[in-house]
Amino acid sequence: MDENSISTTKGFDVSTTSSRDSNQNKCPAQSALKRLERHAAGIYEEVDSVSRSISQQAYRIEQMEQQLENAHQRIQKLEVELQTRIFRSMPDYQVSDASISEDFLVIRDSLCEWMEGFPDIRSFTETLDNAIHRRGIDKNMFTFPRELQLEFDHAQTEILTMISFGIIREHVLESLVGVPLPTEYRRLLIFIDIENINLWRSDTVRAYATTQAYKDKIVQHCSGLAGYLRGFFGCFSFEEPFDWDQKLRRLEKQILPQIAALALKLSCSPERYYWEWYPDLDWTQPIVFHKRNLSNFITMDAHTHHTLNPQTARFANMQDNAPIGVVLLILYPALFRLVPGSQNDILIQKAVVVIQGYESLPSNLKAKVDSLTTKE
Length: 376
Known about the structure:
coiled coil
């Protein structure tokens, strides 16, 4: 074989091989590109399908939300209509001042009787402030004239009664008179004409008071308050033992429910009431109690624990400004019914005050009382 043939053969082989390699390099890239294009098209179709599905679901959700809102408004309207029918079917709630006065007297008598059952307390005057401090009781509630501290032992029952009633008033009479209604009851008040707000509030409270939730609240409230008072009395050392459980059981099961019932009666009435503790009294000096004051208060003597009768012969020949004694404490507040637009509110029950009689005052305090009386 000559050189030309060898050269030609080699040249053919190189050209053919180069062309085949180039085609082989191009085909896989094109195939991969086509596969990617098909894959991308499939993904786009899936995304488009999902997007359409999401839009459809969002539209359905929006429709359902609108239906729920319409249903909620319908329920509210039906609640108001139902409550209105209930209220209209109720007889008018009228509570007389005499009825409230009688209930308050029963409560006062029950609480005083319960308190008198405690034995005497050792060193009562010395331990009173400590008991008030330990139980976190507001000292502003007890503004005793310090000149009369020696008389605390004589007025042990009255002082403990005042403290107990002050706590009960705060946690039962005042907290339950403004009954915190559940949301569904409060919502009804927005539909009420302002002129009839008291009547509707009264009816709403009455409706709520029939529920088991309110009854359970009263039981829980009375139980907790009885436990709190037990803690307060536990700060003292008594001269004789007594049955704690029986005494607290009567308070929890009998006396406190009576007070809660009075609070509910006041709440259910369309009238408004308030307790008067005479906060403007100046306890930094002796508060002289005159004969003329006997007609404005129910007055008890700290020594005898008896109520003073202004009609007795003892007071018959006294001048109206004659000093009877010095006020030791206000045992029970006065109860008034508010008369809108008038300064003459209706007195339902007088306040009960405890005094130290003029005859039993120490000589220095008696001289101070005489001086104050002369200045009037």
